[in-house]
Design goal:
Blueprint: E1 4-9, E2 16-20, E3 27-28, E4 33-38, E5 43-49, E6 52-59, E7 82-87, H1 90-104, E8 109-113, H2 114-120, H3 122-131, E9 135-141, H4 157-162, E10 167-171, H5 174-188, E11 195-201, H6 230-237, E12 242-246, H7 253-266, E13 269-272, E14 279-281, E15 289-290, H8 295-302, E16 307-311, E17 335-340, H9 346-357, H10 382-392, E18 398-402, H11 407-414, E19 420-424, H12 433-443, E20 449-454, H13 455-458, H14 464-471, E21 475-481, H15 486-494, H16 502-506, H17 517-523, E22 528-529, H18 534-544, E23 551-556
Parallel strand pairs: 2-4, 8-9, 9-11, 10-11, 12-13, 12-16, 13-15, 16-17, 18-19, 18-20, 20-21, 21-23, 22-23
Antiparallel strand pairs: 1-7, 1-8, 2-3, 4-5, 5-6, 14-19
Amino acid sequence: MMLGLMLFNCSDDNSSTIVTESGTSSILGEWNGTMIYPSTEYQYTFTFDNVNFNVFSEIYNGVEYDSITGSGTYTIDNNPEIRPVLGLFEGVVTGAADGYARMAEKSAASLLHLGPGLGNGFANIHNAKKARSPMLNIVGDHATYHLKHNAPLTSDLDNLAKSASDWVGRATSSNDLCDLGNTAWQKANAFPGQVSTLIVSADSAWGNFDSKIPAPLEKLDPESIDESQIKKSCEILQKDNSILFIGGKFLNEECVTLAAKISSKTGCRLVTDTFVSRIRRGEGLPIIEQVPYFAESAAEFLKNTSGIVFIGSRPPVSFFAYPDKESFLTPKSSEILILSTPEQDGLYALKALVDESDGKEITKSLLQSKIEDMPMTGDLSIDNLGLLIANLMPEESIVSDEAATSSFLVTPQALKAKPHDWLTLTGGSIGQGLPLAVGAAIAKPDRPVITLHGDGGAMYTIQALWSQARENLNITNIIFANNSYEILKIELSRVGAIKTGKRADSMLSLDNPPLDWMSLSKSMGVPCYEPKEVEDFIKIFSSAVKEPGPTTIVVHI
């Protein structure tokens, strides 16, 4: 049996509860709150504050526990501050954890079932790692004494976890579970965010706890920058054709505003990566250019650059390698200075550059203008769809973008929408957009979430629609249905496969049989619409973003 479970904090005091439940290898909850561990005689209650792990009380609770199994009645039902979210595939769970982390700026806990369960969630764990999202994966494993029998679901779990995690720990007894849980939470939430995986042997749940309570671990703050490089950075930015390249966790409103003050004073361009975990943008906000996707376009974009100062990012490389094309996109003649790595204090670096450059005001031309009016009638073409979405998006929308080829045409218009947050496919592994929206909507229930998704990628984690309906989340899913993996067709031609035959073409086609989106969406409890005219889209979309619960809108292009 393979299920995934995502657990979120839903209490008013920003705490959550973790309960170990007898007979399972599962730790239920977010590592930020209270943990109840039933022993043979006592209920041990530990309290967490952020990453601090402190003893709150040791209470004799009067419950009779079996001396062998340590069984008790403390389950998730006794702790309403935990919000469990069920995903019908582990990739939905790990994608949701990523979306939650990007918007809540802290980790939830994913609960995965042994090695194959972790494998099912691997793609979106990879995306989360590239986004530097704080993620805590709790993965059950067979009991320690059972592993030698090579039972079903036995795997090389530790090495699988290491390939997509920044930290991996394994609890083999009740006594080391607290220490490792403490460390797992700290590592996951270390700046700027890491993937932390705690493997829990089943017998950890029913063994006796007779160890000491672990001491609190210190919060891991950003690393300091080299302040001797601030003056040099400012000198580079004052040159003609220079770039301030910002990324990672430094694309929020405070950071892009500081960057705009630097640009106004020095004349440098403001640039970020092709794919970002989260960027604040929209009308009246500073314009941050993004490096184009295709390598030759990116090279042209960066051509003649005299120097680049990086904050929260590193020099860009092409998505894939191509024959006779450079992988490293920055001109060799450019002076490169990494003032702040993604792990360092980029906010401090930006403030220091503002002071060094004496940047006080923001040039009006650096701020995003208002979107032009949208069409009110006509065919629903890809050309006008961006204008429609941009005009109709409510202020403070959250957009989960995995529209691939359609995004190239739609998202430039959306830059001018009312202020919003935009989340993208950071790791390149498709099937992220729908579950990412789940986590974002749970993290920010007062904000509408809009998903832009290609039809092929959506089928990877289509089960996310069911979770959206189950949780009654305000998510508007826009599916761009071109009945093919169009981006793969483009990439195939770019490596020299100019001519293909029917058999090769069929491997990138989704029209035999065609996907019935109306039936797919409705079967999972999400109403679905297929507007053909502009008037229909305006009516459906305007209603969907305002009403509670999810909606799917399919646009055939």
